[in-house]
Amino acid sequence: MKNITYLVVGLFMACSAPKSDQADFTEAQRDSLFAGKDSLDGTSGSTALEKVLQEQGLLDIEEVIPGIRVELKYSTEDNFFKKDVYGDLTRCYLQPVVAEMLAKAQQDLQKDYPNLSLLVYDGARPRSVQQILWDDLDKPDSLKPLYVSDPKIGGLHNFGVAVDLTLMDVKSGKPLDMGTPYDYFGYPAYPDRELQMLAEGSITKAQVANREILRKVMKGAGFTGIGSEWWHFNAFARSKVEEKFTIIE
């Protein structure tokens, strides 16, 4: 969320149309992938935030999705807030059904592009962390929802059903060029503005092609993107989330 060059409307709060509850796995594939991963409660060496996520039944995606890579941006200072808010939490957790969907996206990606992998920047985010982001945002309360979800309501990350990610070249270990950094607020990051940004020369066809690969595998696994962030995908619409899941405290 760097270099705010345009007025941004509806970021982080945006939701998407309903989609299938699960990826299209056979029963055998599902059992093999998630064997022994139904509960991670009591895992030795877990950090405080990991225990919060584990106690609510969320899964560590690196333990259940072969080859996927994780770089939690909120465990670094490379984010809009220029602050590490996750501390020693460096592993990404998601609801089990969402982890299953993401496993399908990774599988489909590596089938068509063996040299690529998904690189995850953010997943489940406890409301306690959301409160830190809200409190630290140097904006009037009336404008804060333009940048971060109100913790009183919670965003889809706070339910463990949203994921931020990009594509990575496996050999080089570097993310593909998507035209803007992660957490960039401005039209060049908007999928809805790509034609305009191409015409203005703010992004290139090659950068859009990279985004299209990401969108293809994510949508094929049942996720839906939003119009203002190329990196953000929802597994469920907001209208369905509170029926199925409990907010992560």
What does this structure look like?
The chain is an alpha+beta fold and 249 residues long. The chain has one domain: Muramoyl-pentapeptide Carboxypeptidase, domain 2, CATH 3.30.1380.10. It has eight helices and seven strands. It has a five-stranded mixed sheet, covered by helices on one side. The longest helix has 17 residues, at 96-112.
Strand order, largest beta sheet: 2-4-5-7-6
**What would CATH call the architecture?**
2-Layer Sandwich
Uncertain segments are 1-43
What is the radius of gyration computed over CA atoms, rounded to a whole number of angstroms? 17 Å
Please report the distance between the alpha carbons of the first and last residues. Answer: 24 Å
DSSP helix count? Answer: 8
Under CATH, the topology is which? Muramoyl-pentapeptide Carboxypeptidase, domain 2
Work out the helicity level.
Answer: 25-40%
Task: Give the tally of β-strands.
Answer: 7
Mean pLDDT: 84
Domains (count) = 1
In the CATH scheme, the class would be Alpha Beta
Largest sheet: 5 strands, mixed
Query: Approximately how much beta-strand content do the residues carry?
Result: 5-15%
- Molecular shape: globular
Observed structural traits:
249 residues, alpha+beta, Muramoyl-pentapeptide Carboxypeptidase, domain 2, 8 helices, 7 strands, globular, disordered N terminus
Summarize the structure.
This protein is of the alpha+beta class and 249 residues long. It has helices spanning 27-34, 48-55, 61-64, 96-112, 127-136, 194-200, 205-220, 238-244, and strands at 59-60, 69-70, 93-94, 116-122, 162-169, 224-226, 229-234.
